[in-house]
Amino acid sequence: MDGDSKSVRARSWAEPFRIKMVEPITVTTREHRERAIASAGWNTFLLRAEDVYIDLLTDSGTNAMSDRQWAALMLGDEAYAGSRSYYHLEDAVREVYGYEELVPTHQGRGAEHILSQILIKPGDAVPGNMYFTTTRFHQERAGGRFIDVIVDEAHDPASTYPFKGNVDLAKFQAVIDEYGADRVPYISVETNVNMAGGQPLSLANLRATYELCRANGIYLMLDATRAVENAWFIKQREPGYQDRSVREILREICRYSDGATVSSKKDNLVNIGGFLALRDAELARRARGLLVAFEGLHTYGGMSGRDMEALAQGIREMVETDDHIAARIGQVEYLGKKLTDAGVPVVLPIGGHGVFLDARSILAHIPQEQFPAQALAAALYVDSGVRSMERGVVSAGRDPKTGENHLPKLELVRLTIPRRVYTQAHMDVVAESVIEVCEHASEIAGLRFTYEPDDLRFFLARFEPIG
To answer: Could you confirm whether 450 is annotated as catalytic?
Structure first.
C-alpha cells in the first residue's frame, strides 16, 4: 500500500432520526402464544395485536409518523367539499410524482377498484409483472383475466438477478398477439414487486414496456406503492443513475406511465390513505364519478382533512433526502444478512420492504397443498411472538374456473419491516427466532383448512395442524 494511502474500514450507520415517543410492548410466554395461535386458527392475521411482540405482518399503515406529520394533523380542513387539505395533497402529488390528476381514496385497494371499473371490460386480458392479491381480485371482479408477464428469474428465490421485477417483453407481446391490443386495456406494472420478494424493475425495462404500450395503444398503469424503494435500487444497481437522487429517479419512473395506484400506507409514511393518479383528464373524470359512489367526494375520497395533511407531508418527506430510504432498506438488508449468514434460505437479492423466507426449502417435508408457508409463520409466532405472514398458496387462492388451488413457484413467509418503528436490536431478536425455528423445522406439521372464505382467503381463513 502507498505510504500516503489510508485503509478504508466499513463504518456503522444509524437511523436518521431520534425517538420522541415510545409505545410499550409485552413479551408473552410460549404457553400464551400456543393458546393464541390456536384461537386464531393458525392464521397470523387473526391474532390480537396485544398478543404480538414484534409485528412484521405488514408495512402497510404501520409506519411511525414524524413530528412534522403530527403537526400537520392539526392543520386539517374537515370541510366536506373543497377542503384546502385536498389541494395541499394535490400539490404534493404533482410536485413529487408528476401526475396532474388526483383521485384520493381511503387506501390503495380503493384506487385499484376504481381503475379496474373504468378500464376493464369482461373478457379483457390484463398482463402484469406478477399478481398482487387485491389488485388481481379487482381485475377479475371487473371481468378481466390477469396474465403474469414477469421475467422467469422472479420465480426462482435463489436467483440474484438484480431486477427480478422486470416485464418479459416477449411474454407481453404474446398476450397482445393472442387477445388483440383492443382487448388489453392496460398493463399493470408493480414497482418493487411484493409477491416476488420486494424485487425492483429497471428503468430501461420500464421505458421499453412503455414504448411497446404506446405502439399498441395500451395504457401502462403503475402500482407505485413502493416506487421510492424501487428508485433506491435503480440508484444502486442500474448504470448511469448512481449520481441521481431518489427524488429524480422517482419522477422518471412515473414519466413512463399513464397513471398509478398508490397505497399511501407504505412509502408515503402514513397510517391510512391512498390515491389514483392519472394524466388523462377524461379518465380522471370517469374515476371521480365512481369515487363519489364508492369512496367519498372528489376532494376527500375516504380520507379526513387531517389524513390528507399528514399524507402531503409524508410524500415530501420520503424524498426530502436519500437518508430516509437508505436507512429503511439498510435495516431490511441487516436482517437479511444475519439470516443468510446463518444459512437460512431466503429470496435473493434481499428485497426493499422485507425479508422473504423460502418456506418450500425450509419445510421440504410438507407438500405445498398443506400450506408450508402458513405453518412456518405460525411456528415463528409460537417461538418468539414475532408475527409474519404467508405469501404462498394460501395467498394465491383458487382458479375461478376450475376451483383448484393456484400453486405458485414461490412459497414464502414475509418478514415485513415497518418504517421508523423497530431498532436493530429488534432485528437481532427476529433473526435468532427464525434461526431457531429453522433448526427444528422437521417438527413442524402441515395445515388444512377448517374455514376457507370465497375471496382473499388469506385474511380470514382458519386452519388446524394435520396429525
So the answer is: no
pLDDT tens readout for residues 150-162: 999 999 999 999 9
pLDDT in tens, 206-229: 999 999 999 999 999 999 999 999
Q: Can 341 be counted among the known catalytic residues?
A: no
Q: Where are the beta strands (DSSP E) in 303-374?
A: 354-358
- Start-end ranges of CATH 3.90.1150.10 in the chain? 30-59+322-465
Active site residue 391: yes
Comma-separated ranges of CATH 3.40.640.10 domains in the chain: 67-317
Has 179 been annotated as catalytic?
no
The answer to whether residue 266 is catalytic is yes
Q: What CATH code would you report for 67-317? A: 3.40.640.10
Alpha carbons 122 and 99: distance in angstroms, whole number: 28
Q: Looking at 109, 226, 266, 419, which residue is catalytic?
A: 266
Identify the active-site residue in 80, 121, 255, 450.
80
- pLDDT for res 227: 98
Catalytically annotated residue among 133, 134, 225, 416: 133
**Does the structural domain 30-59+322-465 have CATH classification 3.40.50.80?**
no
pTM of the model: 0.94
pLDDT tens sequence across 76-118: 999 999 999 999 999 999 999 999 999 999 999 999 999 999 9
For this structure, is 17 an active site residue?
Answer: no
Could you tell me which of 150, 155, 201, 129 has the C-alpha nearest to residue 347?
Answer: 155
Residue 63 near residue 265, CB atoms below 8 Å: yes
From the list 328, 391, 414, 457, the catalytic residue is: 391
Report whether pLDDT(203) > 70.
yes
Show the cell assigned to 160. Answer: 440474484
